[in-house]
Write a structure and sequence with these properties.
The protein contains 4 helices and 3 strands; from the N terminus they run H-E-E-H-H-E-H. It is mainly alpha-helical.
Length: about 110
């Protein structure tokens, strides 16, 4: 469902044109995973290529695509992976800090 968050200078007419294009082209251009609220481009298509094809701003294509079909699957997967890696890094940093404290304690005991 489209909301009123189109980029400045975009019109409802353009948004409907983009939505209709995605619907007409179907899986040749964009695969939609409604359960995940995600999608992915096929055959070398992307927001910029659709924008050039329809002669509309890429930001408008991205907004309509995201609001209608969801975020890009690859991007969302990378975002989740980065969050997981960040959590692992934080855990490792805490462990290193704890080990440093332990080693300092051992060092003081030897003196």
């Amino acid at each position: 469902m489209m909301t009123n968050t189109l980029p400045a200078g975009s019109s409802i007419k353009r948004a409907l044109q983009i939505h209709a294009y995605f619907e007409q082209q179907g899986a040749d251009v964009l695969i939609h995973y409604p359960q995940e609220n995600l999608c992915e481009y096929q055959g070398g298509w992307n927001d910029s290529k659709v924008a050039r094809h329809l002669d509309v701003p890429a930001t408008t294509v991205a907004t309509v695509r995201k609001e209608t079909f969801g975020g890009l699957k690859k991007y969302e997967a990378r975002k989740a992976e980065r969050a997981s890696l960040s959590e692992q890094i934080n855990t490792l940093e805490l462990r290193v800090t704890a080990l440093e404290g332990f080693l300092k304690g051992l060092s003081k005991q030897e003196k």
